[in-house]
């Protein structure tokens, strides 16, 4: 089967550049649409010009949009809505992967404030996509390893502690950690897969379903010593959040939902990426953490 031509909108981003690499590695003719102000104006497309966006999406079969998950009601939603309008008019796009790649938005109807803002925004895009009848796949990716596993799930840290670590609540709640390159590889796999059409595909590699304490133990084993552990109660978490700026509060809300509430793992899933695509050799967190030694 001929591989879909893939357009990546946001291909310069943290996840976006990995999607571009994975798409090329999988043999998809791959195009990147980026803001004209950063360099070449691909096909003279401007995000604000409906006509040129339509012309661009007509040249491809699938669109992936890993644009910023900014923590403010901002430009990213209008941009995706413009993209949806363009795809609707073009009428040729066989698969759209909007900017999801995290907690399953549809399950976050009662998310805490102000975290709910980003879920509400992503839901607005879902409604537009489904209303326009564009075939979609929503990728629910768990915790990006670089953001979460690297810092042993300590808010504000991206490198693992060497002496003491803050444990979120009991530390026993199961989360999911995924190497961002694996997120990209799985996402690209879904593009031409009819089993993923109009579905949410969950990335839940079984060996990477771990609690914070399990992750810490893996690290302790690698460094050959125990860390001191302090527990942060849920009340302390919310008290600390009050003094933080808005964007940080949005991010901290995610720690609450993932590590206290268990929102990534407290339900069964049907379409799971490592089962659908066993040929993707996903990275185990023991191997991931070795880069910090
Ligand atoms: N599960 C997790 O743990 C986790 C963690 C982080 C992110 N995510 C999700 O992953 C997705 C991608 O996030 P990311 O961190 O990779 O984003 P990012 O690094 O901030 O990437 C941003 C991309 O979006 C583009 N962009 C932003 N605003 C734009 C605008 N107004 N017009 C055009 N392009 C714009 C940027 O273009 P420029 O280069 O021109 O700025 C860049 O290519 C989001 O849905 C996010 O929620 C999940």
Short description:
The protein is an alpha/beta fold and 293 residues long. The chain contains ten helices and eleven strands. The protein is globular, with a radius of gyration of 19 Å.
Main sheet: strands, sense, barrel: 4 strands, parallel
Element-by-element helix/strand order:
EHEHEHEHEEEEHEEHEHHHH
Under CATH, the topology can be stated as Rossmann fold
| Secondary-structure arrangement, i.e. CATH architecture | 3-Layer(aba) Sandwich
Query: What small molecules are bound in this structure?
Result: NADP nicotinamide-adenine-dinucleotide phosphate
Please state the CA-atom Rg, rounded to the nearest Å: 19 Å
Mean pLDDT: 92
What best-fitting shape do the alpha-carbon axes yield? globular
Strand content: 5-15%
Helix-and-strand structural type = alpha/beta
Report the helical percentage. 25-40%
Give the class-level CATH name: Alpha Beta
Total strands = 11
Give the distance, in angstroms, between the N- and C-terminal Cα atoms: 43 Å
Stretches where pLDDT is under 50 for at least 5 consecutive residues are: none
Helix count, DSSP H or I runs of 4 or more residues = 10
Domain NmrA-like: 2-289
InterPro entries: NAD(P)-bd_dom_sf (IPR036291), NmrA-like (IPR008030), NmrA-type/Isoflavone_red_sf (IPR050608), PCBER-like (IPR045312)
Protein name: NmrA-like domain-containing protein
GO molecular function, one term: pinoresinol reductase activity
């Amino acid at each position: 089967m001929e591989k879909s031509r893939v357009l990546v909108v946001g291909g310069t981003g943290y996840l976006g550049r990995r999607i571009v690499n994975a798409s090329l590695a999988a043999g998809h003719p791959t195009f990147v649409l980026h803001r004209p102000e950063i360099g070449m104006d691909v096909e003279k497309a401007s995000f604000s010009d409906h006509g040129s966006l339509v012309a661009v999406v007509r040249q491809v079969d699938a669109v992936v949009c890993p644009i910023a998950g900014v923590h403010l009601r901002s430009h990213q939603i209008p941009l995706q809505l413009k993209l949806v309008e363009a795809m609707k008019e073009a009428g040729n796009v066989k698969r759209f992967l909007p900017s999801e790649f995290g907690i399953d938005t549809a399950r976050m109807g009662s998310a805490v404030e102000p975290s709910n803002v980003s879920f509400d925004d992503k839901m607005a895009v879902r409604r537009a996509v489904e209303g326009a009848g564009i075939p979609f796949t929503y990728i629910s990716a768990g915790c990006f390893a670089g953001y979460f596993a690297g810092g042993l799930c300590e808010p504000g840290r991206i490198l693992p502690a060497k002496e003491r670590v803050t444990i979120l609540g009991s530390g026993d709640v199961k989360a999911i950690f995924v190497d961002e390159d694996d997120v990209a590889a799985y996402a690209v796999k879904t593009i031409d897969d009819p089993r993923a059409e109009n579905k949410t595909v969950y990335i839940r590699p079984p060996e990477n379903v771990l609690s914070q304490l399990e992750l810490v133990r893996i690290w302790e084993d690698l460094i050959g010593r125990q860390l001191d552990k302090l527990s942060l109660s849920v009340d302390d978490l919310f008290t600390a959040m009050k003094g933080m700026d808005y964007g940080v509060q949005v991010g901290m809300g995610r720690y609450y939902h993932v590590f206290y509430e268990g929102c990534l793992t407290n339900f069964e899933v049907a379409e799971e990426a490592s089962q659908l695509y066993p040929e993707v050799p996903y990275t185990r967190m023991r191997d991931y953490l070795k880069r910090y030694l």
